Amino acid sequence: MITLQNLSTGYxxxxxxxxxxxxxxxxxxxxxxxxxGVGKSTLLRTLSAFQPALAGDIRIDGRPLSQxxxxxxxxxxxxVLTERTTVQHMTVRSMVGMGRTPYTGFWxxxxxxxxxxxxxxxxxxxxxxxxxRHINTLSDGERQKVMIAKAVAQETPIILxxxxxxxxxxxxxxxxxxxxxxxxxxxxxxxxxxxxDVEMALQLSDRVWLMEDGHLTTGTPRQLAQDxxxxxxxxxxxxxxxxxxxxxxxxxxx
Amino acid sequence: xxxxxxxxxxxxxxxxxxxxxxxxxxxSIPAGSVLQILLGNSEGDxxxxxxxxxxxxxxxMLTALLSGAxxxxxxxxxxxLFRNPLAGPSILGIDAGANLGVALVMLLLxxxxxxxSLSLSGYLLVIAAAMIGALxxxxxLLLLSHSLQSKTMLLITxxxxxxxxxxxxxxxxxxxxxxxxxxYIIWGMGTFGNVSLNHLPLYAFLIAAGxxxxxxxxxxxxxxxxxxxxxxxxxxxxxxxxxxxxxxxxLLTATTTAFCGPxxxxxxxxxxMARMYLRTSRHLVLLPGxxxxxxxxxxxxxxLSTQLRPGSLLPINVITPLIGAPVILxxxxxxxxEGQL
Lengths: 254, 341
Prior knowledge:
The complex is a heterodimer.
Chain A: E1 2-11, E2 14-24, E3 28-33, H1 40-47, E4 55-60, E5 63-64, H2 70-74, E6 77-80, H3 92-98, H4 112-124, H5 140-153, E7 158-162, H6 170-187, E8 190-194, H7 198-204, E9 207-212, E10 215-219, H8 221-226, H9 229-234, E11 239-242, E12 247-250
Parallel strand pairs in A: 3-8, 3-9, 6-7, 7-8
Antiparallel strand pairs in A: 1-2, 1-4, 4-5, 9-10, 11-12
Helix pairs in contact in A: 3-5, 4-5
Chain B: H1 2-23, H2 31-38, H3 47-81, H4 94-109, H5 120-143, H6 151-175, H7 178-189, H8 200-216, H9 218-224, H10 228-233, H11 238-260, H12 266-278, H13 283-307, H14 320-337
């Protein structure tokens, strides 16, 4: 679906990461792990075409991302950003409806089909009961789900999310990851997200990309646990990683 | 449904207010005669009354109506573009830019002419100067727009721009003729009475072009509410949209400023009032709602400017802050309560 060939990311003359070779497949939930500042957001922004690749190639079904028009991209890639979106007097339903923008006419009005897609997106993300609430009255978790529903309503085969589980309490994080997993499997989408919740990513993702300075390791959670990559990433003094249960153990020296 | 009812009510209010503006002016003319003259019944009418109605009240009423729609629309577009509830042509210093352009023309080039006596080419020169000034400030703001999402930075930038243009204008005043300074000060107080019947078609054309341009941007404006990145992701060409918004707000602000002087507060306050009543974020409804509400409000202001001190016309900037300032305070207090300022 998406292939990255010899990709370099960064800004102007500042290279954040180079020589990235990897691919994202349809129907898989893929988590991007790595320490702060390693370039996870830069990679996501490059894949979303918010900033150009410094070198190399990103191809979607064989077509270079850089050659797609804004319009074509809007029907291929949906994004969910970290920033908190506040809009006065906008209901959940109209926010999800904004996902239909690439398909609507000159004035942006929704037709019967658009409304059906919006209903469906709210159903799948479990926010149908919130549809008449104003988004400024929602909790962070609910608001994040609304933005995901917007991306679902956009009907793109690819959804990219920058730290969708940040700022959420633990049950909401699990809830969010489960929902994304079922979207990937149920709707055969590519879902790619960055996160700091290592254990949850390992237990719920189909694949994991681990970014450390200068290189990227990809594989299933088990593969990365077995080859020692995860251990290298999380283990410090007093922190160990159990490669069988994919959990992190903390020792307390009282 | 609520939206439609409200728009219809605004239309009715606009017609009533327009009628009031024709009936009551600085000089009292019996309502019956006003009706006769407007219907073209010239039997037994008073030529002075006819002159006042057709040459003064009518253009002043239409100018007020158009200016209100123009300034409020600019304010709404700026608030969406900068995603900042405190954005508006006067707070951002855009009309200070237009102001500077006008000052350059009035004080440097023709210190002895008043706006009312200008020929059409003179008028166009003043408008062009105001437009260049307004666009220059808009460009500067767009360059700084990343930091302008912080409400504090926005206010500071606007204040700084106003100070700088103010100081240049003082310098111009210092070296201008006494008459030029006087004209400039009178212009600066703001009035809807400067557009003569001859110049009205040009004024109406320029404002109509700006308002129609704004309506063409309804869909991208909606997407911009989510922020620039989401807008791009939804397929909106944000460069084109920004240029379009730049042109429309520049045209609307510059035209009203050049003809009526810098009218403060309306551009910032009216979009908030429209949102409060319409309770929607959709520009397809908000834009016409804002235009109508702005037009109604300026008609009220214009009426007050002729009625508060019978026999004289008060400067419009005496009245607009009385309406605008409470709305701004309300917005600030509400956003502070929501922890968003």
